[in-house]
Write a structure and sequence with these properties.
The chain has helices at residues 3-9, 15-27, 30-46, 55-71, 78-88, 94-103. It is mainly α and 112 residues long. The protein has a domain at 47-108.
């Protein structure tokens, strides 16, 4: 533990106080937590593939945002992620997306 963190908890007398202090330090208060999650949700809804972006890079960007959302307790399904990708890819991928949609049954995608 760094000295800076130790100085914040050295005056507490019970473990619960130390835990609460550390939790707020690293996760923020409930209000901060809610605000960050709402910001991640907004970013997810507004996310679109850039014209010069590769599918791999776009997926990485989505996955990073989804991981942040999940770290804050959001239960986002794989189905929602796939739908997001298919809806927000650039027009140059329209034929590929159409072929994927025609060949796959998205009702069978895991909801976890």
């Amino acid at each position: 533990m760094s000295e800076e963190i130790f100085l914040r908890i050295m005056g507490v007398t019970i473990a619960k106080e130390a835990w609460d202090t550390l939790q707020e330090e690293f996760q923020g208060s409930e209000k901060v937590h809610t605000t960050k999650l709402q910001s991640f949700r907004r970013d997810f809804e507004n996310l679109k593939m850039e014209d010069n972006e590769s599918p791999k890079d776009y997926y990485s960007r989505i996955k990073e945002l989804v991981n942040q959302m999940r770290a804050y307790g959001e239960n986002i399904t794989d189905k929602k992620i796939v739908r997001k990708i298919l809806i927000t890819c650039t027009e140059k991928y329209d034929l590929v997306i159409s072929a994927i949609e025609e060949s796959k049954d998205f009702r069978k995608i895991n909801t976890h």
